[in-house]
Structure formats: C-alpha cells, structure tokens
Amino acid sequence: MVDTVKLLIPVHNPLVFDGSRFTPITLEQLVNSRGYGKTFLNPSPTYAKMGKYMPRLTMYKRVRKFGAVTYELAVEFSAPKMLFGNNFDELEEKDFDALLTALQTALHELLGHRFFKPQLAHADISAWHPSKNIVFLDYTSCQTILNTMGKLDVSKTYDFQKTDFRDGHVVHIHANSLDIAFYDKMADLLKAKKSNKRAFEKDSSVQLNLLEGLSEYRPMEVFRYEVRFVGRASIKRAYPDLEQWTFESLFNMKLCQNILLKHWKKLTANVDMLALDVKQPYELLQNYLEANDDVTPQAALAAVAGMLIASQAGVVGLRNTLEARFGKQAWYRIKPLLNAPQAHRYTAFVHIDEALQRFTPTKMSEFLSNIENTGKL
User: Fold this and answer.
1) Domain coordinates of the chain in residue numbers?
2) Model confidence, pTM
3) How far is Cα 280 from Cα 225, in angstroms, rounded to an integer?
C-alpha cells in the first residue's frame, strides 16, 4: 500500500526531548542558536545489526514574522519496515493502530518522550510513497520487464524528466512533481548485502535475513513499483479531493491503489503489447530462458540461432545445411530446440496490471507456504 512516510509534527518545546544524540548540534544548541536551523538524528548502525528498524528524525527551527520561533519534528520511516521489519510484506488499513504503536515506541526510545497517537495520526505529510510488490512465480525475469520499461518515451507522458538505469535492475523516472521507480526487489537486496550505498532502497540491512529463505525458491521474482511524492504541494496535487493531508487521511488502500493504477496506465497507454515480443535475438533468448527452466546456456543460444536461421532460410534449408555437414542425426538433436517460446513480455505486463487491479496485500509468509506446498501460487 505505502512504504516511505514523512510526518511533520509541531513541537512546542524541543528541550522536553533527549537532544544529545542529534547531530551536528544538540537540541539545546539549536534552541539557543540565532535564526533558522536544523539538526538530525539518524539511527545508529547498531540498530540495523540488531535487526531493529528505526525512523530518521530532523528537528527544524524556523523564525516567522515579528520574531516568532516555531519548531517542527520531521519523522521519516518505511511504514512496513516499522511494523514488520521488512517491506516485502504490505500494510492494510487494519494495521494503522499497530503501526502508530510501533512508531510511538520507536520515538520514545530515540527521544525519551512518548507522543500521543492522535499527534502522530493527525500529523501533516511531506513525503508519501504508494507502492506495490508484484510477485512472479513462473520464472519471469524482472530484468525483462525493466528493459521494456526503460524503452518507454516518458517525455511524452510527463513534464521535464530524466530516467536513471542502474545495473539493469532499476528504472527511476524523475518528473517535475513526482518520482516513479520500478526495480527488481531481490536484485536490490543482493546489492544491499554487499553495500547499502550500492542499493537503490534505503535501510535494507534490517531485511537481509530474508535472502536466505527466499533464495531457496528460485522461481520467485519480486517486481517493485513505487510512486514517490515529496513535499506537501505535490501530495495535495495528487489528492485534490481531500480536506486534510494527514497520516490518517492518506492511509487508505483505495487512494494508494488509484495513484499506482493511474501512473501505470499513463506509462503503458501507448505500449504496443503485441510488439513487446518481437522475434529479435535478444527477445527470443529472454523468452526462451523463461519458458525452459533447466536449459543450459549452450542449448539456449543454439535454439535462438536455430529459430533465427529457420525464419530466414526455412526449416528445410536449416536441416539440409546441418545434415550436409554433420549427418542426419544432427538434425534430430536440434529439432526439439526449435519450438518458439511463448510471449512472456506480454503476459508479464498483463500480470502486473491484474495485480494492481486486485491490490491484494503481499504477505511473503503466504507465498513461501504456497511454494513449499504446491510449487506455485
């Protein structure tokens, strides 16, 4: 439903908090400073080593007209990581109270102060990332989908934008009012295992323990889709019908689903689905690999070469060439490889669209249980 959230909580007196852990200045130094200022409390790496997820905090000091001073605490966190310790599992509306409790506890540990739940629920939002995990259990490769997404002409759909491609596992679209990210969740987690700085997603270290369990189930691939709104103005433009843009009012599955569907349809509206699986060498190879679980690299390349030659010279021409050089038995070894694979790109896009339409929360324990019991969803 939603991943990253940034709350803005008005603070009357920052000195009620334990401010010694803020950097580069303590809360006491911030209060005694002149003019605008801010200071940060980023969770210690020790928490991650313990497998404990904590929010990032920023205290702002602003000087208004006539010298009035106001303080605001920004609390940024991944909502599913806060509650579940990972963001493979997705939240539901019924999780809201438990999420507030988890956030309340984390803030008390960091600040030595317990916020009331209504303070958190009614806080304004300055970052909001609706998201969806789409699971494939049929050997569909996320990279295949991302290659296609990377070829879309985004400039015709959104105002000024640039698109980043990272190592074949991330497509990140930067537009004027929002960011859109598609990435291979499993590949990104493997990047985080080597170094958090190399991963696209922040704070992945707390969920690295999932890799061992998930890696046993090779058919599973997780395609991650996020629409990222940063700043209150962009959030208000995205949800113009709301009267308030608070944590409680935005924590709504339908609102998140509608945003994700809206931008998915905009991006794919002009995609020729039938053209996704044109019989070029690269497309043929990817589709062949996805259709044949146990194929060797040599057999896959031989099959693609055979299909391309047969499409140019005909099956008879290919057979005659092979038999002339290698004898009749060579043809019977090659012939079973020449069955054209199914159109996986097309079916992958249909699967994503259907998952967004259903918007059923992903629960990794259920997927793993189904895989263990039946080998499929």
Assistant:
1) 2-268, 293-338
2) 0.81
3) 27
